[in-house]
Each structure stands twice: as C-alpha cells, then as structure tokens.
Amino acid sequence: xxxxxxxxxxxxxxxxxxxxxxxxxxxxxxxxxKRTTTYTxxxxxxxxxxxxxxxxxxxxxxxxxxxxxRQSEQYVADSFGGSLPAFLSAFSKRxxxxxxxxxxxxxxxxxxEKK
Length: 115
Description:
- The chain has helices spanning 3-15, 20-31, 35-47, 64-80, 84-94, 99-114; strands at residues 18-19, 51-54, 57-60.
- It has 115 residues and is mainly α.
- Strand 2 (51-54) and strand 3 form a beta hairpin.
C-alpha cells in the first residue's frame, strides 16, 4: 500500500465505524479527494480484505497493527530473504541504534527465547 492509501486507511482506523458520507467528507478535507476517488480506493482496499462497506457503514477487517506487522513481514521477506538479522544489519549500518533501542531489542529477544 502506498503512502496515500496508508493515509486513507488511517482515516478509517481512527474513525471507525463511520458512514461512507463521513469518510467522503474526511477525505475531501484531509486528502483533497473527490467522492469518486474515495469510493474507488475504498473498493480497492475492501477487495484486498482490509475494510468492508456494509450498507454504508465502513469498518476494518484487520487492525492497523496487524496490517503494518504483515507489511513489515512482507518487506523483510521480499528484500532480505526473510532474514530479520539481515534487515537489522542493513538498517543499523546507516542509523545507529540508541541505548534504549538496543535494550528494547534485547528484551524482545529474551521474551522470544523463553517461549
């Protein structure tokens, strides 16, 4: 999903459940979209299983956190052969991790080892 579609999805996640008319109004204000654009993108994302439009009420079928977790997993799979260590190595070459970030990662690893 591109940046504009992500902004659109965030509008839904932050306001759901919402009527299609409310969604159109929010998209006009925040994205400068016409009604037809809002309906087209809603249809596309509904076909992808993210949202549903049930009798004019728009709700999500997947949470924002679950969606971005799946997106992240797909990115690591596509770009780094599914290797999280390869991703972290590439990420940390240009952005140095803070002490807090390192401690958070260590705590996460400890939790995974205990499972």
